Amino acid sequence: MAMSSDVNRRSRSVLRCAEEIELCERALMPCGDVEALKALEPMFGNLPFAEGADEVIVMKGFRTVVALYPLWAIKEAVTAFIAGQVPTYRGDFCPNTAVFGRELERRVSRHRERLRKARRMAEEEARLAAEEQGRKARSSELRAAGDRRVYELRARSNARHIGRGVMFEDRNGQAWMPGPELTAEDLASVPDAPRRTFDRAQAGGKGFDPLPKGRD
């Protein structure tokens, strides 16, 4: 039950990581050229180019920069430059592409960091989930091996009782035989056997049947 609970919890965690990755990737998705250049128009209309700047070359540079960023970041950066709210910029002219690019990067950096964390967590959760699945498979194999060993021990003990003629009858005349007489070595040979089985067998002494009914 505990392992099943761990697997379910891990599955939920993996799902949350996937949702976080999807949100971050969507927030960082670059916009198209047309949308980006249109978003730049208010800045070009309010802040003149520096004297001697070649407008065609400047526009090509901005097109190259904004192609890497989402529309919301471009709009926020434009508004911040027009309003004089960019801490590192005090110019009266339109910022050059390097300055504008740094402001764009500053605005998307928190989303990039969230995306890196979500991906790292997703990788870790996937690794842990694979380990838990492996443990579950190994546990199933051990239980199956334990069932086979229990059957062998019961059969051997029953044959020993029959060979010695140790049989009893209950009040209804039904034949029965004592429980298997097991040694510590017998119990140690049962894969995945709980420790309490050995402890109870030691306390119960001869004739105590530590093997659960229904495993034969």
Short description:
The chain has 216 residues and is mainly alpha-helical. It has 7 helices and 2 strands; from the N terminus they run H-H-H-H-H-E-E-H-H.
What does this structure look like?
The chain is an all-alpha fold and 216 residues long. 68% of the residues lie in helices and 2% in strands. The protein has helices at 2-27, 33-46, 55-66, 71-82, 97-164, 184-188, 195-204; strands spanning 168-169, 175-176. The chain has a two-stranded antiparallel sheet with strand order 1-2. A hairpin with a 5-residue loop joins strand 1 (168-169) and strand 2. The protein is rod-shaped, with a radius of gyration of 37 Å. The two termini are 23 Å apart. The model is unreliable at 194-216 (pLDDT under 50).
Produce the secondary structure layout.
Blueprint: H1 2-27, H2 33-46, H3 55-66, H4 71-82, H5 97-164, E1 168-169, E2 175-176, H6 184-188, H7 195-204
Antiparallel strand pairs: 1-2
Helix pairs in contact: 1-5, 2-4, 3-5, 4-5
Any descriptors?
216 residues, mainly alpha, two-stranded antiparallel ribbon, 7 helices, 68% helix, disordered C terminus
Question: What portion of residues belong to β-strands?
Answer: under 5%
H and E string: HHHHHEEHH
Strand order of the largest sheet: 1-2
What is the count of helical runs?
7
